[in-house]
Amino acid sequence: MTGVQTCALPICIAAVPVAEAEALYQKALDIRERVLKPNDVAIADTLTNLGELFKARERVEDAIPLLNRALEIRTRALPADSPLIASSLQNLAGAIELDPSGDKFVAAQKMLEKALAIRRKTQVPDHPDVAGAISKLATNLYNQGKYREADALFKEALEIRRRVQPAKHPEIASTLVGLALNDIEQKNFAEAETRLREAVSIREQVLAPNATTTAEAHRLLARVLILQGRRDEALDQIR
Question: Of the given ranges (19-28, 96-105, 229-238), which has the lowest mean pLDDT?
């Protein structure tokens, strides 16, 4: 990984070398901790940025303490139903899921359920952030093998996204891929193929020609075709 784009703050650092981004975030954190009160939400913002950077680099042992501290500050400083608290819960859950030790998905599930409850209470039902929280919880349940529960949530997230986002939005493609993976585990291969073909089409139209997520969708489509005994078609997708 050579660059990072993180937008927890109004100002983004984009396409900056990772080492430089880390140094800048650390410097910002040092300044804010010197001049602001310990529970100032601006400190939580910078902790979140730095923690998300570490998470993107799979440095979970560094990310979790920062994201946990950001959650603690926001919990003390903000109303209990603040969407920023929901964001912190989702960020921390994502880091915990990457931790190779412990019952990570169960612990993360509780955080994601709490985050979704906050978003359902404080945001309009069709808000993209609600769909995002639903998708994260669905993915968590999928990773636990709870395919029926995940299926209902993936479908709900997809319905919201289709209503409020452009038809070729990359997040629709991502939700289709998640739903397709869940279909595969339930041996619903025809449904998975339909969803993956749509995801491939979206990604080919809106992403860069060499986007790795487009390759991922082709690879998964090949897998579904192989499971249906259509090896020649699968080979085309792999190529």
Answer: 96-105
- Range scoring the smallest mean pLDDT among 6-15, 61-70, 89-98, 155-164: 6-15
Higher pLDDT, 224 or 7: 224
How far, in Å, are 23, 98, 132, 157, 207 from residue 112 at the CA level? 30, 15, 11, 14, 29
Residue positions counted in the chain: 239
How confident is the model over 16-38, as pLDDT tens digits?
Answer: 677 899 999 999 999 999 999 99
What tokens does 189 get? Answer: 């291969």
* Helical residues (DSSP H) of the chain, grouped into ranges: 18-35, 41-56, 60-77, 83-98, 104-122, 128-143, 147-164, 170-185, 189-206, 212-227, 231-238
Verdict on whether the full-model pTM lies above 0.85: yes
DSSP string across 100-163:
SSSSHHHHHHHHHHHHHHHHHHHS-TT-HHHHHHHHHHHHHHHHTT-HHHHHHHHHHHHHHHHH
Which residues sit opposite 13 in a β-bridge? 6
Tokens representing 47? Answer: 């902790």
> What's the CA angle centered on 80, arms 146 and 54, to 5 degrees?
60
